[in-house]
Design brief:
single chain; mainly alpha; 4 helices; 78% helix
Length: 190
């Protein structure tokens, strides 16, 4: 049994799923992130309106500059939060897509090579129980297969022992059955 290598260097394993996952998470974040700058903008406008009645134009210009700086800072801050959320979403989806990719790869390899390899996910990956279930299933298939090969071998030996005691026309059929059973035995055991 070969253990599959346990390191993954590609972040976008299932690009379509992972990008969709990240965009869905970010699409919920974007409207909420626009609320805070809007509130600050309206707060400053209200404050400016209130102050304009009591102080001069120099203080008004200072307030407007502060408002613009604050809005710029908030836009940068919100953009950073969205980008960080996007990359966290990619990371989280990687922990989902990676194990599914690895399972698919193990199934493809077992189909092409006609042998099963044990599946192991990395620490922190989701669906760890899926790897255990897959390994239990493949071990069950191997045991069933090997048991049937032994039974075929035993059946071929029993038929060989009875050939001398049967009529000639039956011997040909029994020899054909032995040949078929030997064909099963020649398949490499998994």
């Amino acid at each position: 049994m070969n253990l599959m290598q346990n390191n993954r260097k590609t972040i976008l394993i299932n690009k379509k799923f992972q990008l969709r996952f990240a965009f869905v998470v970010c699409s919920f974040l974007i409207p909420f992130s626009l609320i805070f700058p809007t509130i600050v903008y309206h707060l400053f406008n209200t404050l400016i309106d209130y102050i304009t009645h009591d102080i001069g134009t120099q203080s008004l210009k200072t307030m407007e500059e502060t408002q613009n700086q604050m809005i710029e800072l908030l836009v940068v801050f919100e953009t950073l939060i969205i980008l960080i959320t996007f990359f966290i979403s990619l990371y989280l989806s990687h922990k989902i897509a990676g194990p599914l990719f690895k399972l698919k790869k193990a199934m493809d390899e077992s189909d092409h090579r006609k042998e099963f390899t044990d599946l192991k996910f990395r620490d922190g990956d989701h669906f760890e129980d899926l790897a255990n279930e897959y390994n239990e299933m493949t071990h069950g298939i191997k045991n069933f297969y090997n048991k049937n090969i032994k039974l075929a071998q035993q059946a071929a030996e029993q038929i060989k022992k009875t050939i001398p005691f049967v009529p000639q026309e039956t011997k040909m059929e029994l020899e054909s059955a032995i040949s078929t059973l030997n064909t099963l035995n020649s398949i490499p055991q998994k």
